[in-house]
Amino acid sequence: MSDDDKRLAAEAALGEVQDGMLVGLGTGSTVAFLIRALGERVRGGLGIEAVATSIASARAAEAVGIRVRDFAEVARVDLTIDGADEIDAWLHAIKGAGGAMLREKVIAAASTRMVVIADGSKRVAAIGAAKLPVEVLPFARAFVTARLEALGAAVVLRDGVTDNGNVILDARFGAISDPAKLAAAIDAVPGALGHGLFLREVDAAYVASAGTVELIERGEG
Ligand SMILES: O=C[C@H](O)[C@H](O)[C@H](O)COP(=O)(O)O
Q1: Which positions are catalytic residues (predicted)?
Q2: What are the sequence ranges of the domains in the chain?
Q3: Residue 84 annotated as lining a ligand binding site
Q4: Superfamily of domain 132-193
């Protein structure tokens, strides 16, 4: 079962958490298993603090007894554990189905090590089939939509706003032949504040399929 695999991947990554660490908590259903398991360890005496990539994860962490610090006052994180929507053997990932990719990318960049946890349905030969979320300044919505369409995407405006008060454009490219080129092109659009292409951030991934966890480390793909 996918939920069993999510839990297994989360528990495997928990082995990386050490006493005294500042831990970055990702967002999503796989991270929810991590937060619950980490809460148990904290209640059992593990001395860590956390920063969270979303308001939802901060609340979930506090609810299980994890002390959550305001990331606005933090410059460096020891270890971040986060989910993904797609991940390949080179640890290129697409993230942001839950809308948290901008804060996730900031915290990943601040982290000494960033690991992804995922069930096997997220493992792909090459990223690109999933929708690529782009967080956009509401003022720039139509302009950024046009720029993404010019890059070859079918673009849909997602309902609601992010934790940062911005909107999300879900861009479907089908296949992404050159992820680095696409990431640079989106990064260059004024008003596009962040996107779900994580090409260099992920150091390792725990991917669980049918009860077995595979650890993929950067450089092994
Ligand atoms: O914005 C959401 C995040 O990038 C999630 O980490 C990602 O969508 C994976 O979520 P889940 O574990 O629920 O599939």
Answers
A1: 104 (proton acceptor)
A2: 2-124+199-211, 132-193
A3: yes
A4: ACT domain (3.30.70.260)
70 annotated binding-site participant: no
| Residue 219 reports pLDDT greater than 90 | no
Same fold, 2-124+199-211 and 132-193: no
116 CA to centre of ligand 1 in angstroms: 10
Dump pLDDT digits (tens) for 100-141.
Answer: 999 999 999 999 999 999 999 999 999 999 999 999 999 999
Q: Is 171 annotated as a binding residue?
A: no
List the catalytic residue out of 11, 86, 104, 135. 104
For residue 152, which phi and psi values (nearest 5 degrees)? 105, 10
CATH topology of domain 2-124+199-211: Rossmann fold (3.40.50)
Tell me the whole-structure pTM to 2 decimals.
Answer: 0.97
Please give the distance, rounded to the nearest whole angstrom, from the Cα atom of residue 118 to the centre of ligand 1: 9
Write out the DSSP string of 30-90. HHHHHHHHHHHHHHTT---EEEESSHHHHHHHHHTT--B--GGG-S-EEEEEE--SEE-TT
Going from the Cα of 74 to the center of ligand 1, the distance in angstroms, rounded, reads 23
For residue 104, indicate whether it is catalytic.
yes
Instruction: Supply the ipTM of this predicted assembly.
Output: 0.98
Nearest 5°: phi and psi at 202? Answer: -85, 125
